[in-house]
Protein backbone atom coordinates (compact mmCIF):
# COMPACT_ATOMS: atom_id res chain seq x y z
CA UNK A 1 0.00 0.00 0.00
CA UNK A 2 2.67 2.54 0.96
CA UNK A 3 5.50 1.33 -1.24
CA UNK A 4 6.89 4.00 -3.56
CA UNK A 5 4.94 6.82 -1.91
CA UNK A 6 5.92 10.23 -3.33
CA UNK A 7 8.06 12.44 -1.08
CA UNK A 8 5.26 14.96 -0.58
CA UNK A 9 2.93 12.19 0.61
CA UNK A 10 5.63 10.84 2.91
CA UNK A 11 5.83 14.26 4.55
CA UNK A 12 2.04 14.41 4.89
CA UNK A 13 1.97 10.95 6.46
CA UNK A 14 4.78 11.87 8.86
CA UNK A 15 2.98 15.07 9.89
CA UNK A 16 -0.36 13.29 10.30
CA UNK A 17 1.24 10.69 12.57
CA UNK A 18 3.02 13.35 14.62
CA UNK A 19 -0.25 15.29 14.96
CA UNK A 20 -2.03 12.14 16.09
CA UNK A 21 0.68 11.48 18.68
CA UNK A 22 0.45 15.07 19.94
CA UNK A 23 -3.36 14.92 20.11
CA UNK A 24 -3.06 11.84 22.32
CA UNK A 25 -0.13 13.19 24.34
CA UNK A 26 1.72 10.03 23.29
CA UNK A 27 5.39 9.44 22.56
CA UNK A 28 6.85 7.29 19.82
CA UNK A 29 8.15 4.97 22.55
CA UNK A 30 4.62 4.50 23.90
CA UNK A 31 3.30 3.89 20.39
CA UNK A 32 6.04 1.34 19.69
CA UNK A 33 5.21 -0.48 22.94
CA UNK A 34 1.50 -0.59 22.09
CA UNK A 35 2.30 -2.09 18.69
CA UNK A 36 4.95 -4.45 20.01
CA UNK A 37 7.61 -2.88 17.79
CA UNK A 38 11.05 -1.51 18.53
CA UNK A 39 11.15 2.27 19.07
CA UNK A 40 13.95 2.81 16.57
CA UNK A 41 12.07 0.96 13.83
CA UNK A 42 8.86 2.83 14.67
CA UNK A 43 10.77 6.10 14.41
CA UNK A 44 12.26 5.10 11.05
CA UNK A 45 8.83 4.10 9.77
CA UNK A 46 7.38 7.46 10.82
CA UNK A 47 10.25 9.28 9.08
CA UNK A 48 9.40 7.41 5.88
CA UNK A 49 12.25 4.92 5.53
CA UNK A 50 11.81 2.44 2.69
CA UNK A 51 11.25 -1.24 3.24
CA UNK A 52 8.47 -3.75 3.73
CA UNK A 53 8.87 -3.71 7.52
CA UNK A 54 8.59 0.08 7.69
CA UNK A 55 5.59 0.04 5.34
CA UNK A 56 3.89 -2.50 7.60
CA UNK A 57 4.59 -0.42 10.71
CA UNK A 58 3.28 2.75 9.01
CA UNK A 59 0.14 0.94 7.88
CA UNK A 60 -0.43 -0.25 11.44
CA UNK A 61 0.00 3.28 12.78
CA UNK A 62 -2.40 4.69 10.18
CA UNK A 63 -5.01 2.08 11.16
CA UNK A 64 -4.52 2.66 14.90
CA UNK A 65 -4.99 6.42 14.51
CA UNK A 66 -7.64 6.13 11.76
CA UNK A 67 -5.54 8.24 9.38
CA UNK A 68 -6.54 8.12 5.71
CA UNK A 69 -4.46 9.11 2.71
CA UNK A 70 -6.93 11.37 0.95
CA UNK A 71 -5.86 14.21 -1.32
Describe the structure.
It comes from Leuconostoc gasicomitatum. This is Transcriptional regulator. The chain is mostly helical and 71 residues long. The chain has one domain. The chain is 66% helix and 0% strand. It has helices spanning 7-23, 28-35, 39-47, 52-64. α2 (28-35) crosses α3 (39-47) and α3 (39-47) packs across α4.
Write the layout of secondary structure elements.
Elements: H1 7-23, H2 28-35, H3 39-47, H4 52-64
Helix pairs in contact: 2-3, 3-4
Rounded to the nearest angstrom, the distance between the terminal CA atoms is: 15 Å
Q: State which percent range the strand residues make up.
A: under 5%
The overall strand count is 0
Class inferred from helices and paired strands? mainly alpha
How would you state the average pLDDT, rounded? 90
Pattern of helices and strands: HHHH
Radius of gyration: 11 Å
Instruction: Tell me the domain tally.
Output: 1
Low-confidence parts, pLDDT < 50 over ≥5 residues? none
In percent, how helical is the residue content?
55-70%
| Structural shape | globular
Organism: Leuconostoc gasicomitatum
Protein name: Transcriptional regulator
InterPro entries: Lambda_DNA-bd_dom_sf (IPR010982)
Amino acid sequence: MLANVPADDTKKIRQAIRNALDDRDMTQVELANIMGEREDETSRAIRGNDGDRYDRIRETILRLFNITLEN
